Amino acid sequence: MKTPAECTTMAELRAEIDRLDEELVALFAQRVGYIDRAVAIKTGIGLPARINSRVEEVIANVRRHAVANGLPPDKIEKLWRKLVDWSIEREESHLGKDAE
């Protein structure tokens, strides 16, 4: 693993980006495991897929993490809302659609 400053060629930069992309996909796969477990738990206690208060809590957390890491919170929020919506769609495919 090289830091960005240690990369001296585009090939090195691309290799590091590809490495990070692989790690990110693995992390997303782990996240999906938790989403799928949420389906099982929500089924047992009668919760819907979308819980708006939780969505906003997740977004607030991500915005805080973005700021702490020097990233634009509005851009990260936009990206994360897509991830959250995808996760909810996955849950809804098992639980059905329901409003909070």
TrEMBL record:
Question: Where, by residue number, does substrate bind?
Answer: 14, 31, 42, 91
Q: Which SUPFAM superfamilies does its entry note?
A: Chorismate mutase II (SSF48600)
Give any single GO term for biological process: chorismate metabolic process
Keyword presence, Isomerase: yes
Q: Name one GO molecular function term.
A: chorismate mutase activity
Instruction: State the InterPro entries in the record.
Output: Chorismate_II_sf, Chorismate_mutase-related, CM_dom_sf, CM_II_prokaryot, Isochorismate_pyruvate-lyase
Q: Which SMART domains match?
A: CM_2 (SM00830)
Q: Which residues form the Chorismate mutase domain?
A: 4-95
Point out the coiled-coil segments of this chain.
none
Signal peptide, first to last residue: none
Keywords attached to this Swiss-Prot or TrEMBL record, sorted alphabetically, are: Isomerase
Q: What is its EC number?
A: 5.4.99.5
Q: What is this protein called?
A: chorismate mutase
Source organism: Rhodobacter ferrooxidans
